[in-house]
Input
Amino acid sequence: MDSVPEHYMSIVNALNSFPEPPARPVNPSALEELAHAEAEEEHSEALRNEVGGVLREVHGKGLYKHVRVNMYGVNGNAYNILGVVKKALHKVGAPDEHVRAFLVEAMAAGYEELLDTCSEWVTIVHEAHDVGDAWAAFKRRS
Output
């Protein structure tokens, strides 16, 4: 084998003479972010377990199918729909963990799934209320 030319050896020696780069200091805020992310993951896991238990308790039993939610004239925004159903569940005395389970299930996927979830939990109706009839009934009572 041929020997390595001397000028290559000088380059290798020069490269080997460089000191090791200093260790990067640990950023305290990065450690805090990591700790926060781990705590958030633990909280999310606990919430999934809690919601999963409530969903197993409630799902498929139709506990709130007697609740009629009128969506006539309601803005079709997903958050607005969630708010209307959440308000109806609270109005009939649904426990907070059931309402939270509904919200988690409804927000777990897309818009169509949100609508399906609302229909599974409560009875959705689209009833127009005639203002003229309401005014006539009001006048009869007065």
Summary: The two ends are 114 Å apart (CA to CA).
